[in-house]
Amino acid sequence: MEPITLTKTQARNIIINAAGLARKGQFGTGIEAVYRLIDHLGFVQLDTNYVVERAHHHVMAARIPDYQIEWLAELCKDGSIFEYFTSDAGYLPMHDFRFSLPVKKAFKTQRQPLTSQEVNLMKEVLDRAEREESLMVGDFENDRLEASSGWWDWRPAKVALERLYLDGDLMINRTKGFQKVYVLPANTVPRDTDLTMPDGEEYARFVIRRTLGALGIAYAKEMAWRARHVKGNLVKKELERMVSTGEIKTVIVEGLKGPLYMLPDQEMDVQISRDVFILSPFDILNVFRHRLKDFFNFDYQIECFVPAPKRQYGYFSLPVLAGETFIARMDAKADRKRKVLIVHNLHFEPVDLDQTTIEKFIHSLRAFIRFNQCRDIVFKKSNHENYLEAIIESFSE
User: Fold this and answer.
1) Which of 75, 76, 58 is nearest to 67 (CA)?
2) Is the pTM of this model over 0.85?
3) Cα dist. 109→114, 166, 167 in Å?
């Protein structure tokens, strides 16, 4: 079959629409919009960084104008969504639960052999979970034999809980303070949920469709990434088969080296608003650096993992999207005690911004301040004094 040929603009519009960023409120409002968004994307990455409001809430608030942070917990409680570690930790729709089973099997069978002490501890923890129905790390005495050597040096009980979670023997709920509560699947997963283990081909096809549904247009490596914890997965093999049968379309985008892929029912004539979105670094649009370079000519990485002397833009810079163009990156921190959003660096990209775009950016800034439970905003520096002055002036009115 002949591949579909697209301009860069057409490709960007398809990608932005698939990400739910074609316009404000693309999935509606209310808690129903939260579920529709998660169901559409298939996976919303969770992150614990609290410099500004956490990433999973940020993803929702950027798209859903009336978003309330308690809605995710409500959807988990009623069994509409669940938390699990597939490609990364995140929220998934419950009707996809059976497709988490191959990942759980992989964690259980592909890890290094455990010692008898580790196996016994996991059994003791699981027995206790069955008796008490829910557990937290704080429910265990400090069973560390040696002093901690660093952030990821968890004590044995914590390791046991996490292994049981990855294996599927326990699941995670969250407290209001975002602490993990480990619970039994039987007390969390609705009884009518399909628990049939998919075979390798079905799992691969699921990953391919889900990835393309969320990304709009993708390389094979993004699909493989989503299934990376299942060694020997059949994603590349099934992708070739689906292309040969017409279930997946190949795409040629001007200036890019393929192959690229797209679902055959993907909306092509996409209209993108000029709305401005302040995005999380862990937003589906931003997690693959090569995609931002290829499709948007935007070289971005989150610099909290970069040594301080080597950072260019700041510890936690947030990409700012206007229409189909990234216009800025904003290194921000919420000072929750003082109720002030501190913008350490507002770096504008080398694009000309008209008054309408500046006004829309200001509108998004006001919403972002409220979302972070702040009342005021302070700007420390910017590379474009004229744009910054216009923004500051609007906040002084």
Assistant:
1) 58
2) yes
3) 11, 11, 9
